[in-house]
Write a structure and sequence with these properties.
60s Ribosomal Protein L30, Chain: A, globular, alpha+beta, about 325 residues, six-stranded mixed sheet, Phosphoribosyl-aminoimidazole Synthetase, Chain A, domain 2, seven-stranded mixed sheet, 9 helices, homodimer
Chain lengths: ~325, ~325
């Protein structure tokens, strides 16, 4: 059997089943955005994310500064997704010998730029050579009061997202098209769609300010349908999404029109939005977008006329063809 | 300027100088084996280590089980080097698509084998595809009472090591020679020197039981001369090593004789021993080997006749040619 057959989530399920022997101070372990651990009378959150050249990024259209920024951003997003505060960052770098110290300096500038915004300290790391491509791993430790997991959504809750969806995936699509056409970074098309491209290269995680009424939360990193499915799996519940309530940016709509692509496909299945998806009573006061409801079972997208179609957990998954 | 010019330690120094803005709860940050952070009234230790195929390991003579074991071992060693207790492990894996789920299963078996020994819980991680080779990153969180850093050695202290040195580096040398000769794993030479090879492929970190009198500590990962130099740098002190007191295993002596190599070179400059080096008053009760003394300044190796030669921080350093 090959990895491509069971995919990333099949593999994680297999591994998770072997790591069940956890002590009581681990409040949530494998299978959420971050692990939550009780240390004395405090709680810490821990998340780790790996970025590999050729898989997660392409140095022909990503600067080292942007890459450093994104490395920290994706980790912050996992801490915010649990209702926590990011605090201490650890950076492992596998660097090909041909790189210059200034490249790594620029990478650190990107990390430090975002670290400053949230008062995060760089507390350690590991630096080594890499034979083939650049490899980054970030581990972020946060603190937390109440911890919000993926399990906790109840039938009747509203489903909310904190930002427009699909922008990052469209940004990536535009970058790939520009590369295929041989256009340099900073070319005309890039200026036109700078907003979408920036959302891909330098995502801006933003926390939900008041988590008191939130019943479950996840960050949208693999795409709305996959990440909402994780909430459904862990909460043992179903969901209905209203197609016309999914927030699309004007830029996404424009880019899709010009390219002859379906913007909704990017919003539903595009990854790396790093917006938060949460569930809460439908009447809470929030400036997040309400896109649907949690139901007892079944997973549906509903169109304007009330017709429901089942959806599957489709989006970005490592190893899958 | 290229990385090969400033080397791993030059790069770390550069990066460290940019990350000075640390809050008071970070007790030790970049530049020790682990970071120590105060969480409420407790202290945690955090270390992270990356292993990259082609740089740190060669799958033609390392099994997945051994690799998993080693990934956790090198992280445990960093926690022991601070006087702490390893607790929660996080694993990031970048896996080429051609790998089988069973390969990763075997890797986890190796991790879990050692985790069980020290009651360490696997608390999370990240799993993604890798384009070229296998990449592993482990982050280990430990707890600690008193924290032992690299700074604290005082003139007059004895220098101690917890195990024979150079075995791992000789084990690697033998594996490379076997590979060059086209011998399979399990070949005759490997049986003969199984002890040395095992020390390279599956190092066994062991803690110092009573740290009360220890003034500084480090794990020997880059070689005795480099790691003792780190103690000297951080403690602002010098050191004298007695050449004839450096503990060499019988196996290392035998292998060196047969191969016509100098065993002392392996003990002084060979990396990946994962023994602990510590300083303490010379008369403490310990079963560690006393190999020298801390002095006010200068770094020397002394031979049987009392002749001293200066040593440099030579051993394994990433990026250096």
């Amino acid at each position: 059997m090959r990895l491509s057959k069971i995919g990333e989530f099949g593999l994680i399920k297999k591994l998770r089943s072997r790591c069940r022997n956890t002590p009581p101070e681990i409040l949530t372990g494998i299978g959420d955005d971050s692990a939550a651990i009780k240390i004395g009378n405090r709680k810490i959150l821990v998340t780790t994310d790996m970025l590999i050249e050729g898989i997660h990024f392409d140095l022909s259209y990503t600067t080292f500064f942007q890459l450093g920024y994104k490395l920290l951003a994706v980790n912050i997003s996992d801490i915010f997704a649990m209702g926590g505060y990011p605090k201490y960052f650890f950076i492992s770098l596998g660097i090909p010998k041909r790189f210059k110290p200034d490249d790594i300096g620029a990478l650190y500038s990107g990390i430090l730029k975002l670290a400053k915004k949230y008062d995060i300290a760089i507390a350690g790391g590991d630096t080594c050579a890499s034979e083939k491509g650049l490899v980054l791993n970030g581990t972020l430790i946060g603190t937390a009061g109440r911890i919000v997991t993926r399990a906790g959504a109840r039938a009747g809750d509203g489903i909310f997202v904190t930002d427009t969806l699909g922008d990052s995936a469209m940004g990536l699509e535009l970058l790939k098209r520009q590369k295929a056409k041989g256009e340099r970074q900073g070319a005309r098309g890039e200026q036109l769609f700078a907003h979408l491209i920036k959302k891909h290269l330098m995502p801006e995680p933003t926390p939900v300010k008041d988590i008191a009424d939130i019943t479950s939360m996840i960050d949208i990193s693999d795409g709305l349908l996959i990440d909402l499915s994780h909430i459904c799996d862990e909460s043992k519940a179903g969901a209905v999404i209203h197609r016309n309530k999914i927030p699309l940016s004007r830029e996404l709509a424009d880019a899709a029109k010009i390219s002859g692509l379906d913007p909704l496909r990017f919003a539903l299945k595009g990854g790396e939005d790093y917006a938060l998806l949460f569930t809460a009573p439908q009447d809470i006061k929030t400036n997040a977008f309400r896109i649907g409801e949690i139901v007892r079972k079944g997973r549906f997208i509903m169109d304007e006329k009330g017709r429901k179609t089942r959806f599957k957990a489709e989006g970005y998954e490592h190893f899958k063809e």
